[in-house]
Design goal:
Length: 384
């Protein structure tokens, strides 16, 4: 395994997060500090396009500089001209880059601003970028004043499904007609966020997410309040399941889904509970616990990518102790390939998204590093 870091920004912030920012900052503090605003970035999502051999990148930036590409031919980052359409509340493409059969890339904007800016911020539009011409534009806003954490594209139906926050809602945008629609509420606003990092389609075109209970008369919604749901376009409604992902320790309760995956084997999969993996029956919503790759420290499993050999690849661990791994999801087995550090000994803080560029080459989006600008990581595996 060979590891290389690709640095769009490279500023060391030392202990500024812990000494100056943690529990003290608000949105305006980051906007008013040029070094924080411009260089304290994260790589949140990626899309590899074989047509031009570029990795398109969604970036967190308080400077609204949120869309770049890494050109593999020139080994350089490329500015895609997002400044032509950017607004002051445009903070990141979180998990929202989709390539359509029309050749264009669609995205949506997530937020960093606080509740007091809700009415000032217009809400996230759908963003359209044409790699052939370089044109970029903003389309309709599905939910006014609300922003979008993730999108998924049903290219056959020409429908984009959106995971909004705040409030936590599902919405849709019809690429054929330009019509937007609120599909329903999934988050009650109590007990924390219920949605996952992404929204994923199953093989019947249903869009999967999590939802949560309110549980009036209780001070908290309870141990089993995290549930599974899907929007079914055939029924034109959200199907709310009464069950969720089971606790790995077998105790009563459910865990919040971190991400959803479709490997096209008649099941859905989800991660949660310190980076555990679960298998879901897409008809009944029944979930089965498979394994937890890392049990001795904090971990996550925010992204998996399936390669042509039928194996899924991802990153386990977090907080600078991450390992690359492959997963045989059919057998419920995994193998760790080793820690992720570059030649200088710099360690990956945590993985937010991963894409495969063919030939055993993967790109990992690092996010939320409290010490320095986050990097894009290139990992080459001989056996992939």
């Amino acid at each position: 395994m060979q590891v290389r870091t690709l640095k769009l920004k490279n500023v060391d912030f030392g202990r500024q997060w812990f000494d100056e920012a943690l529990d003290h900052w608000d949105y305006r503090d980051f906007k008013n500090r040029p070094d924080w605003r411009k260089a304290w970035i994260s790589f949140d999502c990626a899309l590899y396009d074989a047509a031009d051999d570029r990795v398109y990148l969604g970036i967190t930036s308080f400077d609204s500089d949120i869309f770049k590409a890494y050109d593999r031919k020139t080994d350089q980052f490329v500015d895609l001209g997002y400044c032509r359409v950017s607004g002051p509340f445009d903070a990141k493409f979180h998990r929202s880059l989709c390539k359509s059969k029309d050749g264009c890339i669609y995205a949506a904007i997530a937020l960093l601003h606080d509740t007091d800016s809700y009415m000032d911020a217009p809400g996230s539009p759908i963003v359209k970028y044409d790699p052939a011409s370089g044109s970029i534009s903003k389309m309709a806003i599905p939910v006014p004043h609300a922003y979008i954490q993730a999108i998924t594209l049903d290219d056959e139906q020409r429908m984009i499904y959106c995971l909004c926050f705040p409030p936590e809602k599902l919405a849709s945008y019809d690429l054929r007609t330009g019509k937007t629609q609120e599909l329903g509420l999934i988050g009650p606003g109590i007990g924390g966020m219920v949605q996952s990092e992404n929204i994923e389609l199953d093989d019947t075109g249903c869009a999967w997410s999590g939802w949560g209970l309110i549980r009036a008369w209780q001070y908290a919604p309870g141990a089993d309040s995290y549930r599974l749901c899907k929007y079914d376009p055939n029924q034109q409604r959200i199907v709310f399941y009464r069950n969720g992902l089971p606790r790995p320790d077998g105790q009563y309760g459910t865990v919040r889904p971190e991400a959803f995956f479709n490997f096209h084997d008649d099941f859905m999969y989800a991660s949660g509970a310190n980076g555990s993996l679960f298998r879901i029956d897409p008809e009944t919503g029944a979930a089965e616990y498979l394994f937890t790759p890392t049990t001795d420290r904090n971990s996550r499993l925010s992204s998996l990518i399936k390669t042509e050999d039928g194996v899924a690849w991802g990153v386990t661990g977090r907080e600078g102790k991450c390992e690359f791994m492959c997963i045989d999801y059919r057998k419920g087995a995994f193998e760790k390939l080793g820690p992720i550090c570059d030649e200088e000994g710099t360690a990956l803080w945590q993985c937010h998204h991963i894409v495969h560029a063919g030939g055993g080459v993967f790109y990992v989006c690092e996010n939320d590093n409290p010490y320095r600008s986050s990097y894009l990581w290139e990992i080459t595996v001989d056996s992939a």
